[in-house]
Amino acid sequence: MLPLPHEMVVGGIYLSPLFVAAVIGVVLANVSGSLLNRYRLTQYFFYPPLVMLSMAVIYTLFIGTFIFGS
Questions:
Q1: How far is it, in rounded angstroms, from Cα 23 to Cα 59?
Q2: What is the rounded distance in angstroms from the CA atom of residue 64 to the CA atom of residue 21?
Q3: Cα distance from N-terminal residue to C-terminal residue, the chain
Q4: Can you tell me whether residue 60 is helix, strand or coil?
Q5: Which of 15, 32, 34, 37 has the fewest beta carbons under 10 Å from its own?
Q6: Positive/negative CA dihedral, 55, 61, 62, 68
Q7: Are 48 and 42 in contact (CB under 8 A)?
Q8: How far is 16 from 13, CA to CA, in rounded Å?
Q9: How far apart, in Å, are the Cα atoms of 65 and each of 19, 26, 52, 59?
Q10: Where are the beta strands (DSSP E) in the chain?
């Protein structure tokens, strides 16, 4: 396992791993939401925006735990 730094530097700006995991989680949730909309599976949800928010939280949790976790 490679040691990961506690902070990431992008263009001289320090970013926390949680912020990076949250950005990746939101992007993955948007991709998943687009696929669900394309195949018309969101019609089975009571409130689809809440499902998208919960998917973003779940993706962020998994990415933060398994990729950036120590």
A1: 10
A2: 6
A3: 10
A4: helix
A5: 34
A6: positive
A7: yes
A8: 10
A9: 13, 16, 20, 10
A10: 8-10, 13-15
Number of neighbours of residue 70 by Cβ within 10 angstroms: 7
pLDDT at 69 over 80: no
Helix (H, G, I), strand (E, B) or coil at 6: coil
For 15-63, write each residue's pLDDT tens digit.
Answer: 888 999 999 999 999 999 999 999 999 999 999 999 999 999 999 999 9
Tokens 């320090």, residue located: 14
Number of residues in the chain: 70
In angstroms, rounded to a whole number, what is the distance separating the alpha carbons of residues 20 and 8?
Answer: 9
**Six-digit token string for 13:** 């700006």
Q: Which residue matches tokens 């991709």?
A: 31
Instruction: Give the HSE-up count for residue 9: Cα atoms under 13 Å, Cβ half-sphere.
Output: 3
